[in-house]
Amino acid sequence: MSEVIGQKRNGPDYLRLLQTGELAKRVDALEALLERCTVCPRDCLNNRLQNEIAACYSGRLPIVSSYTAHFGEEPALVGTRGAGNIFFGNCNLRCVYCQNYQISQTHKEQLKNEVTHERLAEMMLELQARGCHNINFVSPTHFVPQMARSIMLAAQAGLKLPIIYNTNAYDSVEVLKQLDGIVGVYLPDLKYAEDEAGYLYSKVRGYKECARRAIAEMYRQVGDEMVFSQDGLLQRGLIIRLLVLPNDIGGVRESLEWIRDELSPRVAVSIMAQYYPTHQAATSRRHILLSRRITETEWLRALTALDELGMEEGWMQEFDGAAYYYRPNFDNRETPFTDIRDFTS
Question: Which of 65, 142, 67 lies closest to 111 in space, CA to CA?
Fold first, then answer.
């Protein structure tokens, strides 16, 4: 795996941005987007500063469903003490198969989980005090301005962990540019290789192009070189997650081809087998193509594409028993991930 081990860095880049005053400028620029909200590609233009509810059902304050040391991410993120996961409530997508729909699509219930920016900063510091290796924001897209302000507050109080941006990739490029140097590790999904599936199954228009532009911006910032600490923990880099869906709905091979041809064959990918029918995919006849687990043949087809396209950087989940590893409160130290090279070599 391409890597730089133990490269000398005096803490995360956001600490330098804090010292120069640039971090405060970035926070102000991001918060200005909330007045006529263009924080994500939905561009709903609601005034979230006045607590108008946007298309993501979110207003001025961040919503945090839970925060915990988490052991279900890729090995280079969880180490021995876990990733410091902060699960935001609500979402700018409406995936009919969302495994976390209880927190992403129950906006009325999530209102009770609103927190102040100061409290969100305290959560980061608590996770750091527990020994977590990083701060992993899960589904942060619709709360980027709030996230950025809270990172600034936490940094002022002693936060020094890498920031992971764990996203569905339906992100604004202009917003991502403001995160350059704040985020150390980008962890986007690339859900679909064509827009029709994005509209049918995640209820947004133009997913493919929006996600590809967003991931290209992430790549511009961090490239294909992963920077690890001496103990093998990822400090900076890009990992693109590809969830294998039944009936090839996600178009994994096409997405891998785009990554190889438009970004780099050295970009790390994470191939995931955890799909199982839940939420509307488990109950609605309209989504019959998503109503079952993937087959071993479908899984092996995705792995074969890795080999044939020369993608050898990253991780893949084990096929058996991978279905529940990403539930927010699942605290299992047994990682389901294997180095891709174990398959391609």
Answer: 65
Determine the Cα–Cα distance for residues 182 and 26; give it in Å rounded to an integer.
Answer: 9
How far apart are the C-alpha atoms of 62 and 145, rounded to whole Å?
9
- Residue whose token pair is 């979110």: 58
> DSSP of 118-171, one letter per residue?
HHHHHHHHHHHHTT-S-EEEES-GGGHHHHHHHHHHHHHTT--SPEEEEE-S--
Distance from C-alpha of 316 to C-alpha of 30, rounded to nearest angstrom: 35
Query: Distance (Å, rounded) from C-alpha 224 to C-alpha 12?
Result: 18
**136 Cβ neighbours under 8 A, 6+ residues apart:** 70, 73, 77, 83, 84, 85, 86, 164, 166, 187
**Type of residue numbered 120:** L
Q: How many CB atoms lie within 10 A of CB 147?
A: 27
Torsion of CA 185, 123, 128, 239, to 10 degrees: -20
Question: pLDDT per residue over 172-223, tens digit each?
Answer: 999 999 999 999 999 999 999 999 999 999 999 999 999 999 999 999 999 9
Partners of residue 143 on adjacent β-strands: none
Query: Exposed/middle/buried for 236, CB within 10 Å: 0-12, 13-18, 19+?
Result: buried
Please list, in sequence order, all residues whose beta carbon lies within 8 angstroms of the beta carbon of residue 5, skipping any fewer than 6 positions away.
228, 229, 230, 232
| CA–CA dist 56, 44 (Å, integer) | 9
Q: pTM of whole model > 0.85?
A: yes
